[in-house]
Amino acid sequence: MTGPVEFLTGAALGTRVVVRTRIAGGYTDALGYLRSCDSANCTVETKRGTVQLALAEVVAAKEVPPAPAPRPRRHVGD
Fold first, then answer.
1. How confident is the model over 17-67, as pLDDT tens digits?
2. How far are the Cα atoms of 40, 56, 75, 77 from residue 65, in angstroms, in the given order?
3. What is the DSSP letter of 71?
4. How many CB atoms lie within 10 A of CB 23?
5. What is the pLDDT of residue 28?
6. Cβ distance 53 to 61 under 8 Å?
7. Which residues form the Histone acetyltransferase Rv0428c-like SH3 domain (predicted)?
8. How many Å is the maximal CA-CA distance in the chain?
9. In a domain, 31, yes or no
C-alpha cells in the first residue's frame, strides 16, 4: 500500500482525485483533476478553480470515479 504523497507523485496527470490536507483548525478536501505534481506541490483543478497543495500538508489522497452525468431538469407542471 502506498501513502498519499507517493500516490500523487505517481498518478497520471488528468486523474480525478480527492486530496485531504491539513489547514488551521482541521482539514479540507480538494476534488478534481490532477494537473501537475512535483516533489513539493500538486495542483488540482476543481469546479471552483485550480488549487495548489503542499505535499507536506497532504494526509490522504485517492483516485475517484468520474463525476455522474448531469440529471435532466424537471419542468414544473409536467
1. 999 999 999 999 999 999 999 999 999 999 999 999 999 999 999 999 988
2. 26, 25, 29, 35
3. P
4. 9
5. 96
6. no
7. 12-62
8. 56
9. yes
Host domain of residue 56: 4-63
Q: What is the CATH number of the domain that holds 48?
A: 2.30.30.520
- Residue 41 one-letter amino acid: N
What amino acid is encoded at 35 in this protein?
A: R
pLDDT number for residue 74? 84
Interatomic CA distance for residues 55 and 62, integer angstroms: 14
DSSP 13-67: TT-EEEEEEEETTEEEEEEEEEEEE-SSEEEEEETTEEEEEEGGGEEEEEE-PPP
Grid coordinates belonging to 71? 440529471
